[in-house]
Each structure stands twice: as C-alpha cells, then as structure tokens.
Amino acid sequence: MRIATWNVNSVRQRIGHLLDYLKDVAPDALCLQEIKCVDGQFPRAEVEALGYNVETHGQKGFNGVAILSKRPFEVARGLPGDDADVQSRYIEGVIPTDTGVVRLASVYLPNGNPPDSEKYPYKLAFLDRLIRHTRKLLAYEEPLVLAGDFNVIPEPKDAAHPEQWTSDALFLPQTREKFRELTALGLTDALRATRDAPGLYTFWDYQAGAWQKNNGIRIDHLLLSPQAADRLRSVEIDKGMRGRDKASDHTPIRIELAL
DNA sequence: ATGGCCCAGTCCCTGGGA
C-alpha cells in the first residue's frame, strides 16, 4: 500500500499538479494539507474521476486538510480536546486493506511564529492534544499513520542551515522536545527508519532562491505505529513536484507498506 | 546584481505562511 502526504498550498491553485501526481504515482491514499478552501470549493469531481474517494475538512482561506483514497473509508474531522478550535488542521480515516485496516490521519500543525505571540502557545497546545489523541489511537494496536506537515524540524541535519532556525518556532527546543514526546509514545519517523543522511528536505521557501540553492528543511513527516512500522518497505521524497512551474513550497513524501 | 515569494479575500492592500 502506497501512502503519501503533501502540503499543496491551495488545492485550487495546484489542481493540475495534483492530478498529475495521482496519475503518475498512483498512491492508494494521499493526505493533503493547506487546501485553503471550504469543502464545497474542493475540485472533487476531477479527483473522483481518477478513482479516488475524497474526504475534506476545509476552512475559508486558510488551513484545511483532506484524505484521498482509492478505497471508500470512514472519516472523523477535527482533533479532540478543544471544541473552541475553529482551525481545520486534522482529519482521520480508517481505510480498508486486503488484510484489515489502516488508520490514517492528515495533520497540519500550526506554524507558531512569531514565538513571542499567542501563536506559539497554540502550536504547543495543539501538539499536546495530538499527543493525547495519539496515545488513545496507539492502544488500538493497529497500523496507524500520522502523515502531514508537522512544522517541526526534528534535528539539525533536517535543515540545510540549522543556524538560521535557532529562534524559529519550527526548531525551538520546546518544539523539538514536544515532537520527541509524540514519537516517544511509540511512533517511528518513516524517513529516518530508512535513511540517516542529511540533505533530505520536503520544504523550500519561495523566497531568496531557496529551491535553487537547496536551502530546504524537513518538516513533512509520516509517523508509524509499531504495526505499521513492521510493514514499512520504502520511503521516497517526490522532489520533482517542487521543481515545477507554480509549485507548492512543499513536495510530497510517500511510503510503501506491505499491507 | 548580495536580493529575490505566494496564497486568499468584503481584493490594489492585508494577514498568513515558514
């Protein structure tokens, strides 16, 4: 089973790239972040025409997440723990496989900058909620994949120039500590399970020629429960999408699971 | 050339992203 995640930075701007990706890579499931539209504005028909089921958790103008899957699936919208949270950053599906199910979440963690604003505590609180929810999901002891834009640079080798990120919400010690608290529940960072090399990135800023200089960071992750990690076969960063005209600033990353 | 972007929306500026 092939599972991918991609922060598309507006699905309406990126629909051509998205359809090409679905045709070329043919993931069984794709998590999207920053669709930047309400549910009714999602270009559903074009995606369904390629054989995908579409579940969205949209929001006007900002944020918004979705799961596309070849097989129909059950879905839940929103992360438990804060009924007052109006930001659409989490959607979870239970997708049938040949042997059982895989539980798949599309996650868009808050950026959190600037760190001296209310945005940073919101980011940390969101991580706390994700930790609490993940603890419950892990108790099911089933294949679980948390996929998305975590807005966390886990280690210095996950940035081309880590010194430029030391006071940034993506790389502050407290951010990295909470991310480790999440993975320490028993999740495997899929990419780091297969490779320990530096220079593996999923985001390059639009500004200052970051892409041309390969000034990137690794902030899009697939985190696996033990039952999923046992079935991990390979991980690929689909860098080609970032090199296209009118690209998202993120590129997709995907895994193969023997499920 | 030592700086360079892109998105949505009460829309020609602003807020947000990372």
Verbal overview:
The protein is α+β, with helices and mostly antiparallel strands and 259 residues long. The chain has one domain (2-257): Endonuclease/exonuclease/phosphatase (Deoxyribonuclease I, Chain A, 4-Layer Sandwich). It is built from six helices and 14 strands. It has helices at 15-25, 44-48, 119-138, 173-183, 190-194, 226-229; strands spanning 2-7, 29-33, 53-57, 65-69, 74-77, 90-96, 101-108, 144-149, 188-189, 203-204, 216-217, 220-224, 232-237, 253-257. The strands form three sheets. It has a six-stranded mixed β-sheet. A six-stranded mixed β-sheet has the order 5-6-7-8-12-9. Strands 10-11 form a two-stranded antiparallel sheet. The longest helix has 20 residues, at 119-138. The protein is globular and about 45 Å long. The N and C termini lie close together (6 Å). 42% of the residues are buried. The mean pLDDT is 97. The structure holds one DNA strand of 18 nucleotides.
